[in-house]
Each structure stands twice: as structure tokens, then as C-alpha cells.
């Protein structure tokens, strides 16, 4: 009976301990998100949150978080918390603890105490050695919690005592002027303290040992994944908020308000008017727009894909299915990897020096298409080859056993199985080339201020000729605009300041938003194609 009562008490205590540990991990996640918001200025340090100044709230949460982590470690060492720690936290944990404590010691000695940078570096070395020893030598429950938990406590007290406040600055006094300010230091310090304390709290929640290390690693992965998603969300949200007013400038909705368009011989009138999207950029326009740049960007990407994808997939088929795996394929692999790593400005210079002289000595849409196709080609080859190599050899052997020819096996078995990977490579490549500026600047861009409403007409430009190649398209040999170049010109060259742009900054952000929408639209098409081929492969 006594044993049963004791077991009930132990289970109750353990469950409460687990709940506190889980709540501690949650606090670290909240701090992590708040630090990210403060870093991108979604949350400002001068405003209040939950009725408290932002810096004060961050300081209180850091002290609470660090104190709880230290309490877990001490409680485990004294036997109040049931854990299974190892004899040491390990060298990696020791190195991880040494870095932030070195930064804290340097800042305190060099700035707060005004002993200079030399004394700060000495203090950083001493603090790093002490933190490493305090983490690596004691038992895991103490080494993983006490040095790590004291870090957010110290940082939180610094915030609470206003040693570092919202208006804090630190000129480093270097030859090149460098200044640390509160807008950077407070979010970054909070971010790293949340990461370290969250890792330690997760280890405590798992009872240390192998399970605790696994949970600590999972926590770090989740927090970093959260930061990636949060940064993407903030980036898109900020661009949308800044760009939407410009897009809807002069907008009208209703029948008879939009411009007329002719598609396949049928003329109709749009039920809405968005001058920014439907007009061109010209000095005489009442409302400025980016239609020529949108059309140029779309045709640029389509042309690059049309040129690069067949060549890339064909090269991958040859290297994977026909060529002997030896020195030749190794050389080709190294060359394609090197081409993919080549800076875009080098491709632009190549297009400027090699392609333009062969296309009438002038910038043209065709030159831009080919230049970007050369940029896209290495990635298509690499991803297509890897996707085909991932197809099991059993598929090929089974097809050969049925008497199917090699080309039929490639066409009916290998390619369908590899298509999701091929499409993934194309998606990544399109995301890169759609926003490139340097190659477009050198090979295609003919100016930002294109006459209003004038767009490149690639489809309508084709005509038959009596001389080879018997088909011509003057539109491909004309310079045009593109969204990346137009954005570059508006930001760096001051283009548009002499025009009738009512709000140049608004126009810039609206152009950036349109570019983002175009790139994401290509992404959406590619992702849809990838899911289609995956589902088709599963059902077949």
C-alpha cells in the first residue's frame, strides 16, 4: 500500500515537472518569435506589449526562462527531478556555451566598463574557457542547464536595468565607422538566448540522456524552421502592404471601365481598370504602369525555359542512360556544377560580347532569352540527372525483360518516374532567372520608359520569309523592358524623378510586388505540374 502511494506521488510530481518543462519550451518559442518580429521591426522596441514596454517584457521573459532552466538542472542534480543524465554534456555543448558568454564578456568589459577592446577580447577568452569548462566537465543535467540558463538571466537583467535600452548605441571606434544599436542588439541577443534556453529546456523535458538530446535537437530544428517561415511571411506581407496602394492607384471597377483587348480575333472590354498593371511607363500617361515590363519578363522566362529544358533533359538522358560512367561523365558533372556556380554578371557579359554582335549589334529579347537559358541549363542538367539516377534499376530491368527497347524504356518508364524531380529543378531555376537584373541590363533592357501600353508581341511577330530560316520574328530582335531592370532603374538610377509619377516610392514597391507575383505565379505553375506528375505516377 505504501509502495503504491509512493508511486502515485512520483507519477504526479513527474507529470507536473513535465508540464513546467513543456511550458518553458513554449516560452522560449514565444521569445523567439517576438525577437524575429522585433528584428524586422514588426514590433518596435519603443512601443508596449501586454501593458509593458517591449524591452521590459523581453527582459522579464528572459529572466523567467533562464531561471526555470537553471532550476531544472539543479533539481535534477539534487534528485528532486527524475532524469537519466550522462556523465558530461559533451564538447559540442561546451563550444556552444562558450561563444555567447565570450560575446557577453566582451561587451561588458569593452563597452559597459569602458576598458577598451583589448581588455574586452581578454575577458571574452576567459569567459569562453570558463563556460566551456562549466558545460563539459560537470554531469549533463548541470552542464546543459546552469551555464546556458544563466545567459538569458544576465541578458534579461541587462534589459530590465536599462543598461541596454531602446535608444542604446555603441560606436566601436574603428577606422571604418561601425555602430551597434538597440534595434539590432536586443532582438539578436533575445533570439540566441531563446534558442539556447529552448534547447536546454527540451533536454530537461526529455530527461537528458539520449532522449533529451534528441528532443533538444528537434527543438532547434523547429525553431529554425519557424524562423524561415516567419521571415518569408514578413517579407511577403511587408511587400504586399507597401505595394498594394500603388497597384490600385486610379483603379476602376464595373462594365465599360476597362481597356479593350483582342484575343483570337475576338474583341472585348475588361470589366475593371488597373492603370498600374495595364498601362506603360511614359511621360504623357496620366497613370504610370508596368505592362511592358510584365510582358517582357514573362516572355523572357518562357523563352529561357523553351531553350534550356529540352537541351538539359536531353543531356541528362545521354549522361545517365547512354554514356559510360567514367572520366567523361565526371568532367561533365564538374563543368555543369561550375556553370551553375558562375555569377550572373559573367553570363551577362558573355551575352553582351558574344550574342549581341550576332543579333544586329543591339540589345534584344532573344539575347536575353538565350543568356538566361545558359544560366538555367546547368541546373536542369544537374537535377534531371539526379532524378533519373534515383529511378530504381529494377524498373529498367523489368522493361528490358519484356522486350522493350532502350528508348521506349526511357520514354515510358524512366522519364515519367523522374519528371517530379525534373520539374523541381525547373522551378528552382525559374525562381533564379526571373529576378536576375545584370544579364537583362546587358543584353535585353531597352529602357524603362516604354511608350504607354506598348508591349512586345512575340506571337503576332512571326512571319514567313523566302530566305532561311524561312521564319522571322522582328519582335525578338527588339529591346524591351523587364520588371527586374525597371525596379533597378527606379531605385538606383533615379529614373522616373522627372516624370509625372505622383509617388515614386509607392511606384517602386508596387513594381516589386508585381515582380513577386509573377515569380510566385511561375512557382505555382511548376508546383502544380510536379504534383500532377506525382499523382499520375502513383496511380499508374
Describe this structure in words.
- With 540 residues, the chain is mainly α.
- The chain folds into 2 domains: 12-89 and 138-242; 290-539, MetI-like fold (Orthogonal Bundle).
- Helices cover 68% and strands 5% of the residues.
- A two-stranded antiparallel sheet has the order 1-2.
- The longest helix is centred in the middle third of the chain and has 39 residues, at 209-247.
- Residues 1-13 and 449-453 have low confidence and may be disordered.
The largest sheet has its strands arranged as 1-2
Structural class: mainly alpha
Supply the number of helical segments. Answer: 18
CATH architecture of the largest domain: Orthogonal Bundle
| Count of structural domains | 2
First CA to last CA: what distance?
63 Å
Number of E-type strands: 10
Spans where pLDDT lies below 50 across 5 or more residues: 1-13, 449-453
CATH fold naming of the largest domain: MetI-like fold
- Shape annotation: globular
CATH superfamily of the largest domain: MetI-like
Overall pLDDT confidence? 81
Percent range for β-strand residues: under 5%
Main beta sheet: strand number and arrangement?
2 strands, antiparallel
Q: In percent, how helical is the residue content? A: 55-70%
- CATH C-level class of the largest domain is Mainly Alpha
Task: Determine Rg (CA atoms, Å).
Answer: 31 Å
Amino acid at each position: 500500500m505504501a509502495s503504491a502511494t509512493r508511486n502515485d506521488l512520483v507519477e504526479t510530481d513527474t507529470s507536473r515537472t513535465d508540464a513546467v518543462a513543456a511550458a518553458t519550451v513554449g516560452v522560449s518559442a514565444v521569445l523567439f518569435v517576438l525577437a524575429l518580429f522585433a528584428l524586422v521591426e514588426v514590433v518596435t522596441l519603443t512601443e508596449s506589449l501586454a501593458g509593458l514596454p517591449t524591452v521590459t517584457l523581453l527582459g522579464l521573459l528572459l529572466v523567467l526562462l533562464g531561471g526555470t532552466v537553471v532550476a531544472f538542472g539543479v533539481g535534477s542534480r539534487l534528485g528532486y527531478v527524475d532524469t537519466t543524465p550522462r556523465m558530461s554534456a559533451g564538447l559540442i555543448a561546451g563550444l556552444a556555451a562558450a561563444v555567447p558568454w565570450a560575446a557577453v564578456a566582451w561587451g561588458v568589459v569593452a563597452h559597459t566598463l569602458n576598458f577598451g577592446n583589448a581588455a574586452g577580447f581578454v575577458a571574452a577568452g576567459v569567459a569562453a574557457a570558463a563556460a566551456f569548462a562549466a558545460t563539459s566537465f560537470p554531469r549533463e543535467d548541470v552542464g546543459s542547464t546552469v551555464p546556458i540558463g544563466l545567459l538569458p538571466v544576465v541578458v534579461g537583467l541587462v534589459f530590465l536595468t536599462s543598461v541596454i535600452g531602446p535608444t542604446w548605441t555603441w560606436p566601436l571606434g574603428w577606422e571604418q565607422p561601425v555602430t551597434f544599436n538597440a534595434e539590432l542588439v536586443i532582438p539578436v541577443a533575445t533570439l540566441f538566448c531563446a534558442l539556447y534556453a529552448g534547447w536546454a529546456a527540451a533536454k530537461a523535458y526529455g530527461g537528458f540522456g539520449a532522449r533529451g538530446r534528441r528532443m533538444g535537437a528537434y527543438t532547434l530544428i523547429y525553431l529554425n524552421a519557424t524562423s524561415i517561415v516567419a521571415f518569408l511571411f514578413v517579407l511577403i506581407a511587408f511587400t504586399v502592404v507597401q505595394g498594394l496602394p500603388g497597384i490600385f492607384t486610379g483603379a476602376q471597377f464595373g462594365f465599360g471601365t476597362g481597356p479593350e483587348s483582342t484575343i483570337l480575333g475576338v474583341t472585348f472590354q475588361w470589366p475593371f481598370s488597373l492603370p498600374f498593371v495595364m498601362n506603360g511607363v511614359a511621360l504623357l500617361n496620366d497613370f504610370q504602369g508596368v505592362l511592358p515590363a510584365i510582358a517582357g519578363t514573362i516572355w523572357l522566362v518562357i523563352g529561357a525555359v523553351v531553350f534550356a529544358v529540352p537541351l538539359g533533359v536531353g543531356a541528362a538522358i545521354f549522361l545517365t542512360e547512354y554514356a559510360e560512367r567514367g572520366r567523361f561523365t565526371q568532367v561533365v558533372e564538374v563543368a555543369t556544377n561550375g556553370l551553375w556556380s558562375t555569377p550572373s554578371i559573367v553570363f551577362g557579359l558573355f551575352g553582351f560580347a558574344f550574342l549581341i554582335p550576332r543579333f544586329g549589334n543591339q540589345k534584344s529579347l532573344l539575347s536575353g532569352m538565350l543568356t538566361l537559358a545558359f544560366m538555367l541549363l546547368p541546373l536542369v542538367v544537374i537535377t534531371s540527372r539526379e532524378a533519373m539516377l534515383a529511378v530504381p534499376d529494377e524498373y529498367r530491368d523489368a522493361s528490358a525483360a519484356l522486350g522493350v527497347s532502350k528508348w521506349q524504356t526511357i520514354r515510358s518508364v524512366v522519364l515519367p518516374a523522374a519528371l517530379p524531380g525534373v520539374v523541381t529543378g525547373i522551378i528552382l531555376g525559374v525562381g533564379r532567372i526571373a529576378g536576375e537584373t545584370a544579364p537583362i541590363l546587358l543584353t535585353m533592357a531597352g529602357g524603362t520608359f516604354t511608350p504607354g501600353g506598348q508591349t512586345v508581341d512575340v506571337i503576332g511577330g512571326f512571319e514567313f520569309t523566302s530566305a532561311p530560316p524561312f521564319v522571322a520574328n522582328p519582335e525578338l530582335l527588339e529591346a524591351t523592358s523587364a520588371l527586374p531592370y525597371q525596379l533597378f532603374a527606379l531605385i538606383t538610377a533615379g529614373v522616373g524623378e522627372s516624370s509625372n509619377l505622383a509617388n515614386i516610392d509607392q511606384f517602386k514597391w508596387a513594381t516589386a510586388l508585381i515582380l513577386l507575383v509573377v515569380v510566385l505565379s511561375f512557382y505555382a505553375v511548376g508546383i502544380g505540374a510536379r504534383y500532377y506528375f506525382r499523382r499520375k505516377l502513383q496511380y499508374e
